[in-house]
Amino acid sequence: MLNALLGRKVGMTQVFGPNGTVIPVTVIEAGPCVVTQVKTAPRDGYEAVQIGFEETTTKNVTRPELGHLGHSLPLLKAQRKALQGHQQGKKEEAATEAESTDEEKVSKQISHLLKVQSNRQRRPGPELGPFKVLREVGLQDGATTEKVELGASFDVSLFRDGESVDIVGTTKGKGFQGGVKRHGFSGGPKTHGQSDRHRAPGSIGSGTTPGRVLKGTRMAGRMGHERVTAKKLQIIQADPERNLLVVKGSVPGANGGLLMIKKHVMR
C-alpha cells in the first residue's frame, strides 16, 4: 500500500470535541490518485510508485508525457504530410542512380511511418490521465510493489480517524521583506533623533576583523514560497465518499495549494 496521497487545501474551520472543546481544523480534498508508474528494485534500483492527481485535457500536455501515460500518439504534421503524399502517389520518377538511391531512402521512411502509425503506444497497459500533477511516493513499511497494479486508484480510505500524518506543502510567498518581518528584528530606537531608523537592520558586521560580511547573516530578502513539512498532525475525520480529510491544526500554503499527505513514521 502507498504511504502518501496528493490533495488540495480547501480551508480552515473549527469542530467541537467530545468534551465541548473547540478544535481548529484544516479541510483537505485528497485523491483519488491513480498509479501511473510502478518502480521495482531489479529495474530501477528501488521501489516506489508514481501517482497522478487531477485529470485534465490533452491540450496542455506534452507528447512525451502522453506516451509515458500509455496514450496512442498521432503522427506529427511533417510525418502525416509525407505519408499522405505517398498514399496519393505523388512521387517523382527516378532518372539517375542517385535519384533511385534517394527513392529507396524515401521508401524506407514511408515503411517506417506506416509501422509507426500502426503502433503509436509507447508502453503496454491502459491509457491513463492525463493529469495535472505527477508525483512519486513511497510504500508503507514491509510493503512491496508486487501488489500495486498500473491504473489502480487510491482515495482517502488509505487513512483512518485518529491517525498521525505529515503534510508537505509550499508556504505563501511574501515577496521581498525587511528584517523585522522576515527575522523578527526589533528595529532601532525611536528617540534621540532617529526618526527614520525604526525598522532599519543596523550594522551587518565588524570592521577590520574579519573585514567582510559573514555568510548566512540575516538580512532583508525574499520571504516565503518554501517547501515545508508540518509533522504529526492528527486526522479528526476521513470521508472517502467526498474525498475529504479533516486534520487538526494548520497546514502550509494558501487555500487551493497542492499538498502531500504522508503517513507519520516514528523514528
Would you give an account of this structure?
This protein is α+β, with helices and mostly antiparallel strands and 267 residues long. Among the domains are: 1-29 and 158-182 and 221-267, Elongation Factor Tu (Ef-tu), domain 3 (Beta Barrel); 77-90 and 100-118, no CATH class. Helix content is 18%, strand content 32%. The protein has 5 helices and 12 strands. It has helices at residues 41-44, 63-68, 77-87, 97-118, 179-183, and strands at residues 4-16, 22-30, 33-39, 48-55, 131-137, 153-154, 164-170, 173-177, 221-224, 227-239, 244-248, 258-263. The strands form 3 sheets. The protein has a 6-stranded antiparallel beta barrel with strand order 1-2-11-10-7-12. Strands 5-4-3-6 form a 4-stranded antiparallel sheet. The radius of gyration is 29 Å and the shape is extended. The two termini are 20 Å apart. Mean pLDDT is 86; it is low at 93-100.
